[in-house]
Design goal:
This protein has six helices and no strands. By secondary structure, it is an all-alpha fold.
Length: about 160
C-alpha cells in the first residue's frame, strides 16, 4: 500500500486527525511543483522553490510535534490517574493506559516515516542534496522514542 493512502486511512478511520499527521500528500505536491517549474526553465528560481518546500516541511513537522506533545501529556495524565486509583493488575485502567501508549508510539512512527519518505523523495526527484535538514528536523519531539520509553517504564512500574 502506498504511504499516502495509509495516512489517509488513518484519518478516515478516526485514528488520527489531519492536525496530528504530517501532510505527506501536500508535500508530494510541492515536489511536483518544483519539477514543473524546473521544466518551465525557471532554474534560477531553484533556491527559492526549495526554500518554499523546506518551510512547508518545517511547518508540518512543527504541527505534528505539537500534536505529539499533547498526546504525550494525555498519556502521562492517564498513567498518573492509574497510579492514584491503585488498579488491579490487568484492570481496565491499565488497559486504557497501555492502549494510549501504543497509540502514541504509532503516531510517532507514522510522522517519522512521513518525514523520512518525503525527504528521500525530494532528493531522488529534484537531485538537490539537503545535508543540514536532518539535523534541523531531529529536534522535534516525535523524532525520538525517549518519551515513549519513559512512559512505558512508568506504566510498567504500576504492575509491580
Amino acid at each position: 500500500m502506498k504511504f499516502a493512502k495509509l495516512l489517509q486511512q488513518q484519518i478516515f478511520w478516526g485514528r488520527w486527525s489531519s492536525q496530528q499527521l504530517v501532510d505527506y500528500k501536500m508535500l508530494k505536491k510541492q515536489i511536483k511543483l518544483i519539477l514543473t517549474l524546473r521544466q518551465q526553465r525557471l532554474r534560477d528560481q531553484n533556491i527559492s522553490i526549495t526554500g518554499f518546500f523546506l518551510e512547508a516541511l518545517r511547518k508540518e513537522v512543527r504541527k505534528a510535534s505539537r500534536a505529539y506533545d499533547e498526546e504525550t501529556r494525555n498519556v502521562s495524565l492517564c498513567i498518573d490517574k492509574l497510579a492514584r486509583s491503585k488498579p488491579t493488575i490487568g484492570g481496565p485502567e491499565k488497559t486504557e493506559a497501555t492502549a494510549k501508549l501504543e497509540s502514541l508510539e504509532k503516531l510517532a512512527h507514522l510522522n517519522r516515516e512521513a518525514v523520512r519518505k518525503i525527504l528521500k523523495k525530494f532528493v531522488k526527484k529534484t537531485k538537490i542534496k539537503l545535508p543540514s535538514i536532518a539535523m534541523d528536523l531531529s529536534v522535534y519531539s516525535f523524532n525520538s522514542d525517549s518519551d515513549i520509553t519513559i512512559l512505558g517504564q512508568k506504566l510498567n512500574a504500576y504492575n509491580q
